[in-house]
Write a sequence for this structure.
């Protein structure tokens, strides 16, 4: 925690493969701007537990949303603004829908989900959906993740993955590499990756981004890097179909992690929007 507890609360939610330390260039500046800032490691990432797949307790954005709600209730002890990067954005939106009394507003940077690529009102046929889910489960069980995950964490393949998330190589320092590699080298990391891959593949449609956005009532700011190679910026144009009152800002020449690539620009956009919300 940074800042004073009597200040409004801001909770930072990291993206896939990252951890709370990915907000290394944001938390202090946001606290200096008058916020009480928290950052957590979602289950399966960072220093948190790395559970195996359980049929009756899937590791998906619904579980992570419950984790965030529990954190808000037990630690923050009140509602907060949620700020997410990538997967963290989906978790923030999920928490806002399932636990609306605990979330004042959401900032998503960006908001990825395959459902956003589907035309409005169109759904996959049940047999096709079941087939695709089964294929994902079989693939996840067959992949030798116990060999692949440590290999990626220990070789230049890690840098290759990180470069795809940034438009500039400047942020790819030793601290970032350690932040991503250390959790991946824990013994339970492969089973956690398998669990979340299966969990996200099997989640019901109501837990995907498009229907969640349609149900969301809190203010939403979406920040999207114009050079995002992981989630094309064209997807951002579809968000308004599901939540017309959201605000979308494109951040020029930035990739998938704008908060870490140009933290000053990201922090200014975030704080200016929060100030407008407070005066509205």
């Amino acid at each position: 925690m940074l800042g004073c507890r009597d200040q409004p609360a801001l909770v930072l939610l990291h993206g896939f493969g990252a951890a709370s330390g990915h907000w290394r260039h944001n938390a202090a500046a946001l606290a200096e701007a008058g916020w009480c800032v928290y950052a957590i490691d979602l289950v399966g990432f960072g220093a948190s537990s790395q559970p195996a797949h359980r049929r009756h307790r899937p590791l998906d954005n619904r579980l992570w949303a419950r984790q965030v709600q529990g954190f808000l209730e037990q630690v923050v002890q009140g509602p907060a603004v949620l700020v997410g990067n990538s997967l963290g954005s989906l978790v923030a939106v999920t928490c806002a829908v399932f636990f609306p009394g605990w979330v004042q507003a959401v900032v998503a940077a960006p908001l990825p989900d395959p459902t956003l690529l589907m035309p409005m009102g169109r759904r996959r046929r049940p047999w096709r959906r079941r087939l695709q889910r089964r294929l994902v489960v079989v693939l996840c069980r067959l992949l030798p993740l116990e060999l692949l995950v440590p290999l990626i964490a220990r070789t230049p393949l890690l840098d290759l993955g990180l470069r795809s998330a940034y438009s500039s190589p400047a942020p790819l320092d030793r601290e970032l590499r350690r932040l991503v590699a250390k959790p991946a080298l824990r013994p339970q990391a492969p089973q956690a990756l398998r669990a979340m891959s299966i969990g996200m593949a099997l989640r019901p449609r109501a837990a995907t981004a498009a229907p969640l956005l349609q149900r969301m009532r809190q203010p939403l700011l979406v920040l999207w890097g114009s050079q995002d190679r992981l989630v094309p910026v064209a997807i951002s144009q579809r968000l308004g179909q599901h939540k017309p009152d959201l605000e979308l800002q494109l951040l020029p020449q930035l990739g998938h992690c704008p908060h870490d690539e140009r933290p000053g620009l990201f922090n200014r956009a975030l704080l200016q929007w929060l100030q407008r919300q407070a005066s509205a």
Q: What stands out?
A: The chain has twelve helices and six strands. The radius of gyration is 18 Å. The chain has a mean pLDDT of 92. Residues 126-142 form the longest helix (17 residues).
